[in-house]
Amino acid sequence: MESNAIYTTSDAGLSRFFGKIYGLVGMGVGLSAVISYLMLFPLSHVFVNILMNYSWVYMAALFLEFGLVFLASGAARRNTPAALPLFLVYSALNGFTLSFIIVQYTQAIVFQAFLSTAIVFFIMALIGVSIKRDLSGMAKFLMAALIGIIVASLINIFIVSILIFSGLIAYDNQLIKKVYYGANGQVTDGWAVSMALSLYLDFINLFLNILRLFARRN
After folding, report:
1. 83 vs 194: CA distance, rounded Å
2. CA neighbours within 13 Å on the CB side: how many for 155?
3. What is the CA radius of gyration of the chain?
4. The Cα angle at residue 71 between residues 66 and 144, in degrees rounded to 5
5. Selection from 110, 48, 97, 41 nearest residue 68 by Cα
6. d(CA 8, CA 193)
7. Do 169 and 124 touch, CB atoms closer than 8 A?
């Protein structure tokens, strides 16, 4: 990954920057979906074997995920060539662990939750991109609320989590513009991976909470 500037300070350059970020988000979500599908259907025998006899594999994958997030984030900030591969490896591993969650729900609920997540995600993304009001003041509130999600999850308050991650989607999209213009268009691929990772995490967490909310209502 080259460290030199890859965009120019113009609306066209910003559009290309957004395009690259959302292309990466799409790659990440798509890769996670494919791996989950493979685990639940073509490789279901492997999935069942892990579930019944090697549950430690799932737990090890969860711990590895946490490490990969920090590694990918750090590599993106340093704009190193490892950033994109680490992001894709994390997305694939997350697809593996997601399969153990998705299997608990019907296909109809999973589809409804994914569709609802996509709609909410793009609406909030559009708000974040187009709104004129500076959302920086939301950052501290959202981070504090994010900690509150851990407590809220203990009592199954998924609506709170949905609202928080919806806000983070809008904030992260506005942050993309601030980063771009703050650097006078001199942004690098590392920034694109970093922002894609943030939006990917927003999408996955929003999906999981909508999925649990739909299942609870049913």
Report:
1. 8
2. 5
3. 18
4. 55
5. 97
6. 18
7. yes
pLDDT in tens, 60-85: 999 999 999 999 999 999 999 999 99
pLDDT at 213: 85
More confident residue, 187 or 161: 187
Exposed e or buried b per residue across 163-173, where buried means at least 16 C-beta atoms within 10 angstroms of its C-beta: ebbbbbbbbbb
For the chain, give the number of residues. 218
Residue ranges of alpha helices (H) inside 54-188 are: 55-78, 83-102, 107-130, 138-154, 158-182
Tokens encoding 2: 């080259």
Residue 149 has pLDDT above 60, yes or no: no
Q: What is the DSSP letter of 209?
A: H
Can you spell out the DSSP letters for 15-81?
Answer: HHHHHHHHHHHHHHHHHHHHHHHHHHTTTHHHHHHHHHH-HHHHHHHHHHHHHHHHHHHHHHHHT-T
Count CA atoms within 13 Å of residue 150 on its CB side: 4
The whole-chain average pLDDT of the chain stands at: 86
Of the chain, the end-to-end C-alpha distance in Å amounts to 47
Q: Side chain identity at 41, as an amino acid letter?
A: F
Question: Is the model more confident about 153 or about 216?
Answer: 216
